[in-house]
Protein backbone atom coordinates (compact mmCIF):
# COMPACT_ATOMS: atom_id res chain seq x y z
CA UNK A 1 0.00 0.00 0.00
CA UNK A 2 1.39 3.42 -0.89
CA UNK A 3 1.52 6.11 1.77
CA UNK A 4 -0.84 8.61 0.20
CA UNK A 5 -4.40 8.03 -0.95
CA UNK A 6 -3.88 10.66 -3.65
CA UNK A 7 -2.77 10.25 -7.26
CA UNK A 8 0.96 10.78 -7.51
CA UNK A 9 0.54 13.51 -10.15
CA UNK A 10 1.96 16.37 -8.08
CA UNK A 11 5.47 16.93 -6.75
CA UNK A 12 4.19 18.94 -3.83
CA UNK A 13 6.30 21.35 -1.79
CA UNK A 14 6.17 20.11 1.83
CA UNK A 15 4.45 23.22 3.19
CA UNK A 16 0.93 23.62 4.47
CA UNK A 17 -1.03 26.63 5.59
CA UNK A 18 -3.81 27.10 8.04
CA UNK A 19 -5.13 30.45 6.84
CA UNK A 20 -4.51 33.44 4.63
CA UNK A 21 -4.70 37.18 5.15
CA UNK A 22 -4.35 39.50 2.16
CA UNK A 23 -0.93 38.83 0.59
CA UNK A 24 0.12 36.49 3.41
CA UNK A 25 -0.19 32.77 4.06
CA UNK A 26 0.07 31.64 7.67
CA UNK A 27 1.05 28.24 9.03
CA UNK A 28 -0.38 26.52 12.08
CA UNK A 29 2.57 27.72 14.23
CA UNK A 30 2.08 31.33 13.06
CA UNK A 31 4.91 31.42 10.49
CA UNK A 32 4.03 33.92 7.75
CA UNK A 33 4.90 33.59 4.06
CA UNK A 34 4.57 36.47 1.61
CA UNK A 35 2.44 35.02 -1.17
CA UNK A 36 3.63 36.12 -4.63
CA UNK A 37 2.13 32.96 -6.12
CA UNK A 38 -1.50 33.75 -5.26
CA UNK A 39 -2.57 30.20 -6.06
CA UNK A 40 -1.12 30.64 -9.58
CA UNK A 41 -2.71 34.03 -10.32
CA UNK A 42 -6.03 32.91 -8.82
CA UNK A 43 -6.29 34.82 -5.52
CA UNK A 44 -6.70 38.13 -7.33
CA UNK A 45 -7.91 39.94 -4.21
CA UNK A 46 -5.62 38.10 -1.82
CA UNK A 47 -6.75 35.76 0.92
CA UNK A 48 -9.91 36.20 2.99
CA UNK A 49 -10.87 39.55 1.43
CA UNK A 50 -13.82 40.74 3.57
CA UNK A 51 -15.98 41.61 0.55
CA UNK A 52 -15.45 38.14 -0.94
CA UNK A 53 -16.07 36.38 2.36
CA UNK A 54 -19.31 38.33 2.83
CA UNK A 55 -20.45 37.52 -0.73
CA UNK A 56 -19.73 33.80 -0.33
CA UNK A 57 -21.21 33.45 3.14
CA UNK A 58 -24.27 35.53 2.21
CA UNK A 59 -24.97 33.38 -0.85
CA UNK A 60 -24.23 30.14 1.04
CA UNK A 61 -27.14 30.83 3.37
CA UNK A 62 -29.55 31.31 0.45
CA UNK A 63 -28.87 29.07 -2.55
CA UNK A 64 -25.87 27.07 -3.75
CA UNK A 65 -26.88 25.21 -6.86
CA UNK A 66 -29.93 24.72 -9.02
CA UNK A 67 -28.36 23.69 -12.42
CA UNK A 68 -28.79 25.45 -15.72
CA UNK A 69 -32.32 24.04 -16.03
CA UNK A 70 -33.44 27.32 -14.44
CA UNK A 71 -32.67 30.99 -14.67
CA UNK A 72 -29.74 32.20 -12.57
CA UNK A 73 -29.93 35.99 -12.08
CA UNK A 74 -26.33 36.18 -10.82
CA UNK A 75 -25.21 34.66 -14.14
CA UNK A 76 -27.10 37.25 -16.17
CA UNK A 77 -25.62 40.00 -14.02
CA UNK A 78 -22.03 38.75 -14.18
CA UNK A 79 -22.31 38.02 -17.91
CA UNK A 80 -23.65 41.53 -18.55
CA UNK A 81 -20.88 43.14 -16.48
CA UNK A 82 -18.14 41.11 -18.22
CA UNK A 83 -19.53 42.04 -21.62
CA UNK A 84 -19.96 45.72 -20.73
CA UNK A 85 -16.33 45.84 -19.58
CA UNK A 86 -14.94 44.08 -22.67
CA UNK A 87 -15.24 43.36 -26.41
CA UNK A 88 -17.80 40.59 -25.77
CA UNK A 89 -21.55 40.22 -26.35
CA UNK A 90 -21.98 36.70 -24.96
CA UNK A 91 -20.70 34.65 -22.02
CA UNK A 92 -20.68 30.93 -21.16
CA UNK A 93 -19.71 30.06 -17.58
CA UNK A 94 -17.48 27.07 -16.79
CA UNK A 95 -15.71 25.64 -13.73
CA UNK A 96 -12.14 25.93 -14.94
CA UNK A 97 -9.74 27.36 -17.48
CA UNK A 98 -9.55 24.21 -19.57
CA UNK A 99 -13.33 24.14 -19.85
CA UNK A 100 -13.37 27.78 -20.93
CA UNK A 101 -10.86 26.81 -23.64
CA UNK A 102 -12.96 23.79 -24.65
CA UNK A 103 -15.88 26.17 -25.06
CA UNK A 104 -13.71 28.57 -27.11
CA UNK A 105 -12.56 25.74 -29.40
CA UNK A 106 -16.10 24.41 -29.81
CA UNK A 107 -17.40 27.94 -30.46
CA UNK A 108 -14.89 28.41 -33.30
CA UNK A 109 -15.65 25.05 -34.89
CA UNK A 110 -19.43 25.57 -34.60
CA UNK A 111 -19.12 29.07 -36.08
CA UNK A 112 -17.78 27.69 -39.35
CA UNK A 113 -20.11 24.66 -39.24
CA UNK A 114 -23.14 26.93 -38.88
CA UNK A 115 -21.95 28.91 -41.90
CA UNK A 116 -21.88 25.68 -43.91
CA UNK A 117 -18.11 25.29 -43.76
CA UNK A 118 -17.79 22.19 -41.56
CA UNK A 119 -14.35 21.36 -42.93
CA UNK A 120 -12.91 24.36 -41.11
CA UNK A 121 -12.04 22.85 -37.75
CA UNK A 122 -8.26 23.20 -37.38
CA UNK A 123 -6.74 25.65 -34.91
CA UNK A 124 -3.26 27.15 -35.01
CA UNK A 125 -1.41 27.51 -31.68
CA UNK A 126 2.08 28.64 -30.61
CA UNK A 127 5.06 26.80 -29.16
CA UNK A 128 5.29 27.18 -25.38
CA UNK A 129 1.50 27.46 -25.12
CA UNK A 130 -0.48 26.09 -22.21
CA UNK A 131 -4.23 25.75 -22.54
CA UNK A 132 -5.14 23.18 -19.88
CA UNK A 133 -5.17 19.41 -19.29
CA UNK A 134 -8.24 18.06 -21.08
CA UNK A 135 -7.63 15.87 -24.11
CA UNK A 136 -8.32 18.73 -26.53
CA UNK A 137 -6.36 21.34 -24.62
CA UNK A 138 -3.23 19.14 -24.28
CA UNK A 139 -3.38 18.74 -28.06
CA UNK A 140 -3.78 22.52 -28.41
CA UNK A 141 -0.85 23.18 -26.07
CA UNK A 142 1.25 20.79 -28.10
CA UNK A 143 3.68 19.95 -25.28
CA UNK A 144 4.82 16.36 -25.39
CA UNK A 145 5.27 16.13 -21.61
CA UNK A 146 1.53 16.70 -21.24
CA UNK A 147 0.11 14.60 -24.10
CA UNK A 148 2.55 11.67 -24.17
CA UNK A 149 0.93 8.36 -23.21
CA UNK A 150 -2.62 9.62 -23.42
CA UNK A 151 -3.46 7.99 -26.72
CA UNK A 152 -3.97 9.60 -30.11
CA UNK A 153 -3.71 13.37 -29.95
CA UNK A 154 -7.04 15.08 -30.54
CA UNK A 155 -7.02 15.98 -34.21
CA UNK A 156 -7.10 19.53 -35.47
CA UNK A 157 -4.28 21.51 -33.86
CA UNK A 158 -1.28 22.88 -35.74
CA UNK A 159 1.57 24.51 -33.88
CA UNK A 160 4.00 27.18 -35.10
CA UNK A 161 6.99 28.91 -33.48
CA UNK A 162 6.25 31.60 -30.87
CA UNK A 163 5.06 34.77 -32.59
CA UNK A 164 6.20 33.59 -36.05
CA UNK A 165 3.84 35.41 -38.43
CA UNK A 166 5.24 33.90 -41.61
CA UNK A 167 4.84 30.38 -40.26
CA UNK A 168 1.35 31.25 -39.04
CA UNK A 169 0.18 32.42 -42.43
CA UNK A 170 1.83 29.42 -44.09
CA UNK A 171 -0.07 27.11 -41.71
CA UNK A 172 -3.47 28.55 -42.67
CA UNK A 173 -5.35 26.16 -44.98
CA UNK A 174 -8.98 25.87 -46.12
CA UNK A 175 -9.43 23.70 -42.99
CA UNK A 176 -8.28 26.39 -40.54
CA UNK A 177 -10.99 27.68 -38.20
CA UNK A 178 -9.02 29.91 -35.84
CA UNK A 179 -5.76 31.05 -34.28
CA UNK A 180 -5.46 30.54 -30.51
CA UNK A 181 -2.94 32.60 -28.56
CA UNK A 182 -2.08 33.73 -25.02
CA UNK A 183 -1.32 37.49 -25.07
CA UNK A 184 1.19 36.65 -22.33
CA UNK A 185 2.29 33.03 -21.99
CA UNK A 186 2.13 32.09 -18.31
CA UNK A 187 3.27 28.47 -17.93
CA UNK A 188 5.50 29.05 -20.98
CA UNK A 189 7.63 31.50 -19.00
CA UNK A 190 5.95 34.95 -18.95
CA UNK A 191 6.58 35.39 -22.66
CA UNK A 192 4.76 38.50 -23.88
CA UNK A 193 3.33 38.33 -27.38
CA UNK A 194 4.28 41.75 -28.81
CA UNK A 195 1.40 44.14 -29.50
CA UNK A 196 2.33 44.38 -33.17
CA UNK A 197 2.23 40.57 -33.43
CA UNK A 198 -1.26 40.48 -31.91
CA UNK A 199 -2.36 43.16 -34.37
CA UNK A 200 -0.84 41.21 -37.27
CA UNK A 201 -2.63 38.03 -36.10
CA UNK A 202 -5.91 39.97 -36.05
CA UNK A 203 -5.26 41.08 -39.65
CA UNK A 204 -4.40 37.53 -40.71
CA UNK A 205 -7.66 36.26 -39.21
CA UNK A 206 -9.67 38.95 -41.02
CA UNK A 207 -7.90 38.27 -44.30
CA UNK A 208 -8.62 34.54 -44.14
CA UNK A 209 -12.08 34.65 -42.55
CA UNK A 210 -10.99 32.80 -39.41
CA UNK A 211 -11.49 33.59 -35.73
CA UNK A 212 -8.98 34.98 -33.25
CA UNK A 213 -9.24 33.12 -29.93
CA UNK A 214 -7.33 34.42 -26.93
CA UNK A 215 -6.43 32.47 -23.83
CA UNK A 216 -6.57 35.05 -21.03
CA UNK A 217 -7.07 32.47 -18.28
CA UNK A 218 -3.97 33.80 -16.51
CA UNK A 219 -3.58 37.30 -18.00
CA UNK A 220 -7.21 38.46 -17.69
CA UNK A 221 -9.29 40.23 -15.01
CA UNK A 222 -6.87 43.06 -14.31
CA UNK A 223 -3.68 40.99 -13.97
CA UNK A 224 -1.66 43.14 -16.42
CA UNK A 225 -3.19 46.47 -15.36
CA UNK A 226 -5.98 46.32 -17.94
CA UNK A 227 -9.15 44.25 -17.67
CA UNK A 228 -7.72 42.03 -20.41
CA UNK A 229 -4.08 41.92 -21.52
CA UNK A 230 -5.06 42.19 -25.20
CA UNK A 231 -6.37 45.71 -24.55
CA UNK A 232 -2.77 46.96 -24.53
CA UNK A 233 -2.60 46.07 -28.25
CA UNK A 234 -5.92 47.68 -29.16
CA UNK A 235 -7.19 44.55 -30.97
CA UNK A 236 -10.71 43.14 -30.78
CA UNK A 237 -10.69 39.34 -30.40
CA UNK A 238 -13.57 37.05 -31.39
CA UNK A 239 -13.44 34.73 -28.38
CA UNK A 240 -11.59 34.94 -25.04
CA UNK A 241 -11.21 32.19 -22.43
CA UNK A 242 -11.07 33.41 -18.82
CA UNK A 243 -10.67 31.68 -15.44
CA UNK A 244 -8.16 31.89 -12.55
CA UNK A 245 -8.57 35.49 -11.29
CA UNK A 246 -12.32 35.78 -12.00
CA UNK A 247 -13.19 33.54 -9.05
CA UNK A 248 -10.54 34.88 -6.67
CA UNK A 249 -10.16 31.29 -5.42
CA UNK A 250 -13.61 29.92 -6.16
CA UNK A 251 -13.30 27.49 -9.09
CA UNK A 252 -14.88 29.15 -12.11
CA UNK A 253 -14.21 30.26 -15.66
CA UNK A 254 -15.98 31.88 -18.55
CA UNK A 255 -15.81 31.90 -22.32
CA UNK A 256 -16.57 35.33 -23.80
CA UNK A 257 -17.44 35.86 -27.46
CA UNK A 258 -18.85 38.36 -29.90
CA UNK A 259 -22.43 37.76 -31.01
CA UNK A 260 -21.14 36.76 -34.46
CA UNK A 261 -18.53 34.29 -33.15
CA UNK A 262 -21.09 32.68 -30.81
CA UNK A 263 -23.72 32.38 -33.55
CA UNK A 264 -23.29 28.61 -33.90
CA UNK A 265 -23.80 27.93 -30.19
CA UNK A 266 -27.53 27.29 -30.24
CA UNK A 267 -29.74 25.56 -27.63
CA UNK A 268 -28.60 22.04 -26.80
CA UNK A 269 -25.14 22.06 -28.40
CA UNK A 270 -23.17 22.76 -25.22
CA UNK A 271 -23.73 22.65 -21.48
CA UNK A 272 -22.42 22.11 -17.96
CA UNK A 273 -23.94 20.94 -14.68
CA UNK A 274 -21.94 23.09 -12.28
CA UNK A 275 -20.85 25.99 -14.47
CA UNK A 276 -22.28 29.35 -13.45
CA UNK A 277 -23.95 28.16 -10.26
CA UNK A 278 -25.25 30.80 -7.81
CA UNK A 279 -22.33 30.37 -5.39
CA UNK A 280 -19.75 30.94 -8.13
CA UNK A 281 -21.69 33.88 -9.54
CA UNK A 282 -21.90 35.60 -6.16
CA UNK A 283 -18.12 35.36 -5.81
CA UNK A 284 -17.43 36.40 -9.42
CA UNK A 285 -19.64 39.45 -9.02
CA UNK A 286 -17.82 40.34 -5.79
CA UNK A 287 -14.45 40.15 -7.58
CA UNK A 288 -15.73 42.53 -10.26
CA UNK A 289 -17.07 44.93 -7.59
CA UNK A 290 -13.45 45.53 -6.63
CA UNK A 291 -11.55 45.06 -9.91
CA UNK A 292 -13.89 47.37 -11.84
CA UNK A 293 -13.73 50.11 -9.17
CA UNK A 294 -12.44 53.40 -10.56
CA UNK A 295 -8.66 53.46 -10.50
CA UNK A 296 -8.14 49.85 -9.36
CA UNK A 297 -6.47 48.68 -12.56
CA UNK A 298 -4.36 51.84 -12.85
CA UNK A 299 -3.04 50.96 -9.42
CA UNK A 300 -2.25 47.42 -10.59
CA UNK A 301 -0.32 48.86 -13.55
CA UNK A 302 1.57 51.26 -11.27
CA UNK A 303 2.45 48.60 -8.71
CA UNK A 304 3.50 46.29 -11.54
CA UNK A 305 5.86 48.91 -12.91
CA UNK A 306 7.31 49.47 -9.44
CA UNK A 307 7.92 45.74 -8.93
CA UNK A 308 9.41 45.40 -12.42
CA UNK A 309 11.78 48.34 -11.91
CA UNK A 310 12.98 47.02 -8.57
CA UNK A 311 13.37 43.57 -10.07
CA UNK A 312 15.43 45.05 -12.91
CA UNK A 313 17.70 46.71 -10.32
CA UNK A 314 18.14 43.33 -8.60
CA UNK A 315 18.96 41.80 -11.98
CA UNK A 316 21.75 44.38 -12.37
CA UNK A 317 23.11 43.54 -8.91
CA UNK A 318 22.89 39.75 -9.39
CA UNK A 319 23.62 38.98 -13.06
CA UNK A 320 24.74 35.51 -11.93
CA UNK A 321 21.16 34.81 -10.73
CA UNK A 322 18.81 36.82 -12.98
CA UNK A 323 19.20 36.69 -16.73
CA UNK A 324 16.14 38.68 -17.79
CA UNK A 325 13.02 40.32 -16.34
CA UNK A 326 9.75 39.82 -18.22
CA UNK A 327 6.05 40.61 -18.15
CA UNK A 328 3.44 43.29 -17.63
CA UNK A 329 1.51 44.62 -14.66
CA UNK A 330 1.49 42.05 -11.87
CA UNK A 331 2.18 39.18 -14.27
CA UNK A 332 5.96 39.28 -13.98
CA UNK A 333 8.80 36.81 -14.09
CA UNK A 334 12.51 36.48 -14.40
CA UNK A 335 14.61 34.01 -16.29
CA UNK A 336 17.20 32.41 -14.00
CA UNK A 337 20.86 31.58 -14.51
CA UNK A 338 20.77 28.71 -11.98
CA UNK A 339 17.95 26.15 -12.22
CA UNK A 340 14.69 27.99 -11.43
CA UNK A 341 13.68 25.42 -8.79
CA UNK A 342 16.87 26.18 -6.88
CA UNK A 343 16.01 29.89 -6.93
CA UNK A 344 12.46 29.06 -5.82
CA UNK A 345 13.92 27.13 -2.88
CA UNK A 346 16.11 30.08 -1.84
CA UNK A 347 13.06 32.38 -2.03
CA UNK A 348 11.11 29.93 0.14
CA UNK A 349 13.92 30.01 2.70
CA UNK A 350 13.22 33.78 2.89
CA UNK A 351 9.48 32.97 3.26
CA UNK A 352 8.57 34.33 -0.16
CA UNK A 353 6.37 32.20 -2.43
CA UNK A 354 6.59 32.35 -6.24
CA UNK A 355 5.69 30.01 -9.12
CA UNK A 356 8.04 28.20 -11.50
CA UNK A 357 7.42 28.37 -15.25
CA UNK A 358 8.87 27.05 -18.49
CA UNK A 359 12.05 28.49 -20.01
CA UNK A 360 13.72 28.40 -16.55
CA UNK A 361 11.57 31.28 -15.31
CA UNK A 362 10.29 32.18 -11.83
CA UNK A 363 6.89 33.87 -11.93
CA UNK A 364 5.80 36.62 -9.55
CA UNK A 365 2.01 36.76 -9.42
CA UNK A 366 1.04 38.64 -6.24
CA UNK A 367 -2.58 39.40 -5.41
CA UNK A 368 -3.73 42.49 -7.35
CA UNK A 369 -4.36 44.06 -3.93
CA UNK A 370 -0.68 43.79 -2.91
CA UNK A 371 0.63 46.95 -1.21
CA UNK A 372 3.75 48.91 -2.13
CA UNK A 373 5.19 48.00 1.29
CA UNK A 374 4.66 44.32 0.49
CA UNK A 375 6.39 44.81 -2.86
CA UNK A 376 9.37 46.35 -1.02
CA UNK A 377 9.32 43.44 1.41
CA UNK A 378 9.32 40.93 -1.47
CA UNK A 379 12.27 42.74 -3.09
CA UNK A 380 14.20 42.68 0.22
CA UNK A 381 13.56 38.94 0.51
CA UNK A 382 14.65 38.35 -3.09
CA UNK A 383 17.79 40.40 -2.43
CA UNK A 384 18.63 38.10 0.51
CA UNK A 385 17.89 34.96 -1.49
CA UNK A 386 19.97 36.09 -4.47
CA UNK A 387 22.84 37.04 -2.14
CA UNK A 388 22.79 33.55 -0.62
CA UNK A 389 22.74 31.92 -4.06
CA UNK A 390 25.64 34.11 -5.26
CA UNK A 391 27.74 33.37 -2.15
CA UNK A 392 27.13 29.63 -2.42
CA UNK A 393 27.94 29.52 -6.14
CA UNK A 394 31.18 31.55 -5.73
CA UNK A 395 32.24 29.18 -2.91
CA UNK A 396 31.74 26.33 -5.33
CA UNK A 397 34.10 27.91 -7.91
C1 LIG B 1 -4.16 27.74 -15.86
C2 LIG B 1 -4.33 27.92 -17.31
C3 LIG B 1 -5.21 27.13 -18.07
C4 LIG B 1 -5.94 25.95 -17.48
O1 LIG B 1 -6.80 26.31 -16.47
P1 LIG B 1 -7.38 25.16 -15.48
O2 LIG B 1 -8.32 25.92 -14.59
O3 LIG B 1 -6.22 24.56 -14.77
O4 LIG B 1 -8.09 24.18 -16.34
C5 LIG B 1 -5.35 27.42 -19.41
N1 LIG B 1 -4.68 28.44 -19.98
C6 LIG B 1 -3.84 29.22 -19.30
C7 LIG B 1 -3.15 30.34 -19.99
C8 LIG B 1 -3.62 28.99 -17.95
O5 LIG B 1 -2.75 29.75 -17.27
TrEMBL record:
Q: Which UniProt keywords apply?
A: Amino-acid biosynthesis, Aminotransferase, Arginine biosynthesis, Cytoplasm, Pyridoxal phosphate, Transferase
The protein's required cofactors: pyridoxal 5'-phosphate
Q: Which reaction does it catalyse?
A: N(2)-acetyl-L-ornithine + 2-oxoglutarate = N-acetyl-L-glutamate 5-semialdehyde + L-glutamate
Please name the GO terms of the biological process aspect recorded for this protein, alphabetically.
L-arginine biosynthetic process
**Cofactor descriptive note:** Binds 1 pyridoxal phosphate per subunit.
Q: In which pathway does it act?
A: Amino-acid biosynthesis; L-arginine biosynthesis; N(2)-acetyl-L-ornithine from L-glutamate: step 4/4
Extract the InterPro entries matched here: AcOrn/SuccOrn_fam, Aminotrans_3, Aminotrans_3_PPA_site, Class-III_PLP-dep_AT, PyrdxlP-dep_Trfase, PyrdxlP-dep_Trfase_major, PyrdxlP-dep_Trfase_small
Gene Ontology MF annotations: identical protein binding; N2-acetyl-L-ornithine:2-oxoglutarate 5-aminotransferase activity; pyridoxal phosphate binding
Signal peptide residue numbers: none
Q: What is its EC number?
A: 2.6.1.11
Could you tell me which CDD domains the record lists for this protein? OAT_like
| N6-(pyridoxal phosphate)lysine: modified positions | 244
Localization of this protein: Cytoplasm
Highest taxon in the source lineage: Bacteria
The residues that hold pyridoxal 5'-phosphate are 97-98, 130, 215-218, 273
Predominant location: cytoplasm
Binding-site list for N(2)-acetyl-L-ornithine: 133, 272
Q: Which PANTHER family match?
A: AMINOTRANSFERASE CLASS III, SUCCINYLORNITHINE TRANSAMINASE
NCBIfam families, per database record: argD (TIGR00707), PRK01278.1 (NF002325)
Q: Which family does it belong to?
A: Belongs to the class-III pyridoxal-phosphate-dependent aminotransferase family. ArgD subfamily.
Other remarks on this protein = May also have succinyldiaminopimelate aminotransferase activity, thus carrying out the corresponding step in lysine biosynthesis.
Q: What is this protein called?
A: Acetylornithine aminotransferase
Q: What is the gene called?
A: argD
